[in-house]
Specification:
CATH class of the largest domain: Mainly Alpha
CATH superfamily of the largest domain: Transferase(Phosphotransferase) domain 1
Largest sheet: 3 strands, antiparallel
Number of helices: 10
Number of domains: 2
Shape: globular
CATH architecture of the largest domain: Orthogonal Bundle
Strand content: 5-15%
Order of helices and strands: EHEEHHHHHHHHH
Helix content: 40-55%
C-alpha cells in the first residue's frame, strides 16, 4: 500500500494522481503491476497495488550484483511489452489531435531509462556514476559511457540505440521490435512483433 498526503500537494498535483489512478484501473497486463484498490480521505490518497513476489535487488545479490546477458534479454522483453502496453493505453485515452508536447516525448525518455536499467542489470552499476548531482548532469550530457570488454556486441549496439543523447537519434518502436538482440530469443518474440506493430 502507498499513502500519499494531500496536505503538501497543490490541487493540480492531486488531480494528476486521480487521473493516473483512473488509467491504472483500466490496466490488465502480465508485465504491469495492477492497481487493486484506490480510495481517498480528506488528508490522504491510498493506493493498493498488486504484490510483486520477485525482489530484483535480492536476486541481484544472489547473482553477484549483475545478470548474464541471456537473463537481461528476457527482462528486456518483459519490460518492453509492458511499456508498449502502457503507451498504447495512454494513447487511447487521448485524442491524437489534442496530444500535449510532453506526451510525444515520453517514448524517447522511457527508452533512455530502459537503456540505463538494462545496462545496470548487466554491469552491476549505472552508466553514469558520481556522488554529485552537478557531476551526474555533466557526465550524462558530456562523458562517454564506459563499456565492459566482455559485453556482447549485439547487446552493446542495442543499448547504444537506447542511450543516444539526442532523442531524435534514439530507437523508435519499429526499430526496437526488429532488433536482433531481442528477436534472437524465441520467448515472447511473436508477442513483441505483433504488439508494437501500430507504433513507429
Amino acid at each position: 500500500m502507498k499513502i500519499i498526503s494531500k496536505l503538501d500537494r497543490k490541487r493540480m498535483g492531486i488531480e494528476t494522481y486521480r487521473e493516473e489512478m483512473r488509467l491504472l484501473q483500466q490496466l490488465d497486463h502480465s508485465h504491469v503491476i495492477q492497481l487493486i484498490e484506490y480510495f481517498e480521505t480528506k488528508t490522504d490518497i491510498y493506493i493498493v497495488l498488486e504484490y510483486c513476489k520477485c525482489d530484483l535487488s535480492i536476486y541481484l545479490k544472489r547473482k553477484g550484483g549483475y545478470l548474464k546477458v541471456e537473463e537481461v534479454r528476457v527482462i528486456a522483453l518483459q519490460l518492453i511489452n509492458g511499456l508498449y502496453y502502457l503507451h498504447k493505453m495512454s494513447w487511447f485515452t487521448m485524442i491524437s489531435s489534442y496530444l500535449m508536447p510532453w506526451w510525444v516525448q515520453i517514448t524517447e525518455a522511457d527508452f533512455w531509462l530502459l537503456g540505463v536499467v538494462l545496462y545496470e542489470l548487466y554491469v552491476g552499476k549505472t552508466p553514469f556514476r558520481t556522488t554529485s548531482l552537478a557531476d551526474l548532469k555533466h557526465n550524462i550530457m558530456e562523458e562517454d559511457i564506459i563499456w565492459p570488454r566482455e559485453i556482447p556486441n549485439e547487446f552493446k549496439h542495442f543499448l547504444q540505440g537506447l542511450l543516444k543523447r539526442d532523442p531524435v537519434e534514439r530507437m523508435t518502436w519499429s526499430q526496437l521490435k526488429r532488433y536482433p538482440f531481442l528477436l534472437s530469443l524465441d520467448t515472447e518474440e511473436n508477442s513483441l512483433r505483433s504488439s508494437t506493430s501500430t507504433l513507429s
